[in-house]
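Field: COMPLEX_INPUT
Field: COMPONENT_COUNT = two
Field: RESIDUE_TOTAL = 792
Field: MODE = joint
Values follow.
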Amino acid sequence: MHRIIEARFLAPDVKWFRIEAPSIARKRKAGQFVIVRVHERGERIPLTIADADPAGQWVALIVQGVGKTTHLLNTLQAGDAVCDIVGPLGRPSEIDLYGTAVVIGGGLGAAIAYPTARALKDAGNRVIAILGARSKSLIILEREMRAISDELMLITDDGTSGVRGFVTDALRQLIESGRPLDYVLAIGPIPMMRAVADTTRPRGIRTVVSLNPIMVDGTGMCGGCRVVVGGRSQFACVDGPEFDAHQVDFGLLAARNAMYREAEKTALDRFVSGEGDPHGIGEPGCRLADAVSSRPDPGAAPPGRPAPAPAASDPPP
Amino acid sequence: MSDPLPAKERMKIPRQPMPERSPAERTRNFLEVNLGMESAAARREAQRCLQCKSQHCCGGCPVGVKVREFLERIERGDFLGAAAKMREDNVLPAITGRVCPQEDQCEGVCILGKRGEPVAIGWLERFIADYERQAGQVGLPPRAPHTGKKVAIVGSGPAGLSAAGDLVQLGHDVVVLEALHEIGGVLVYGIPEFRLPKSIVREEIDNLRRMGVQFRTNVVVGRTITIDELLDEEGFHAVFIATGAGLPTFLHIPGENLCGVYSANEFLTRVNLMKSYRFPDYDQPVYDCRGRQAAVIGGGNTALDAVRTAVRLGAQKAFLVYRRSESEMPARAEEIKHARQEGVEFMMLTAPVEFLGDERGRLTGARLQRTELGAPDASGRRRPVPVPGSEFDLPLGMAVIAVGNRGNPLVQSATPDLRTHRGGYIEADPETLRTSKRGVFAGGDIVTGGATVIQAMGAGRRAARSIDRFLRTGE
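Field: COMPLEX_OUTPUT
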């Protein structure tokens, strides 16, 4: 059981968690992820490590409610616990002194890109952040990203924050300004990552994406997360999750991520309707009922960097 | 027994049957197929043993179970004594009694098998293990005085559990590290409930716990912690790597990444470990094959497990597609028999050349090709040769690739001074199981490649002996 130290919404369906996981916190590097199983009958889902306590007590995860498991996770509060966390998994981001690095975060992608952006900055790169979302309320981690980047561009589909348009418009503008761009990291919805790859490919700018296929074990055992990169099958959990954007078969990734759509809908509908209440079932010890406490947050926050403040409301779907 | 039965009388007793759930019932659920023998039948079966001096059965067992001695105790009705005798050599009898390929081991060399049917050693092993468990009187072996030495075991599958049981008996502190959230390795993620109920695995693990073995789940050695950290920082005096052959092999043919095409590892992990056959009561889903045809590619025990799982998930028809003929299949005889009873269609001398899909990237079928057997290959089995022009299409809603595994490189890649050889397996001395790194031993599938539960347990035993010597003498 891993106790939740802090939990609060950054937006109605986007929640920030600090969870006790000392062995992971000590080891994790930017770009790595964990696999979480919320309760005894839960599924295993991968979540990128958004931050970790330098003193090695906790990891931070940002969860967007999409299916049953993420919505269930987002009902948990400080003092509750999750059954299992394993990690850190995946290869860390390749941090180097590239020169000028553009970090693009679309929607929740900002949370996944943030630790790598910070590591790039720490390595001496000039970091230009592009945060994009459908609307102003969907932009998260703006303040944190601004603090670690040399420039920050905000782009919204509807123009309610920053410039109206898509992240690729901002990227194209940067490229056309003639400034040398040495490295691009793009994390967000698949169509966004694909569009960024298409934008930088003709210019030969090194571009990396972090992929989010469905996983089970996260250690290379099952092959469920296989993606095709450069015509070769690779396992995102051990060979990734970051890959050369110009080589990724995004169409295949999108198709495979839709593999359980019907089952996901069934599970979510049941959860929303309160059918098959997950709280009281399973083996004692890891039942959700055992994990959920009605007690308030035990107060004193452990040492470490303060968590990011709420940035916005309402996430993209 | 005051009046032992003469050999002539013993040889007249027919092999006692194993009661089974009917195929009609079991194809609709995941309950265990074999129901277990009654005690009268077990004693009768044990009477068939000629108590011969040669004891080939014991030699045929990878962990050297003293078969004659435990059979003799069953015959006398001393079931707990039989179980205790068994546990001297085998820490997981309820498991091996269910999953060992006895026809290739103890029963394969039984003298009765020369003219008739061998003693049902596997069924009797299972009988006594179940008997002592149900009696609540598991005879755990005694523990030697505490040595103060700590051993870390990486992986909680059969090799790791077997080594853990032996090492803890020898007085060492043993901590087993497991990457998944449940202990048991292939016993919980791979072998289905209908062949090995998970409650039995849990009880055997609880027995090890009672013997003093400690378990830590959710630890990925190579990621969460390294071998060097275990030795240098965590105070372990030796490490046994028993991570298994957990890297799935794919066929590298077109269409393999379509939705609905699984590795056997993923398919079985979803269904067994994550219990997706109980979706939506359990959260992890599995691809819906209800009312559609399913095919499993391969001919080993894993392939049989997968195809019989597909039947139970509601596949309208389940095919086992194997490129050789039935006599080359490595699967246990009993699984082949059970699969047939359950309506699995065996499509022998056939191999897929392509998986076919629709515009949404979902599997719709496979293009298959007939093969014929040519000259023997390196494995000694006749090599399958494609028959030109024999391609045909089979409509499918799901396909599972069960053509073997390779060594998972995670531990090795984080341990540069650990030597590996082709295929990614760890180099270890076949007798001492020592690796290139001092204090580090390796055994089971991560050394030999995919084998059986009991072979891995045999490796665990050898490792335990060798580690014990290392801890006592430094050699």
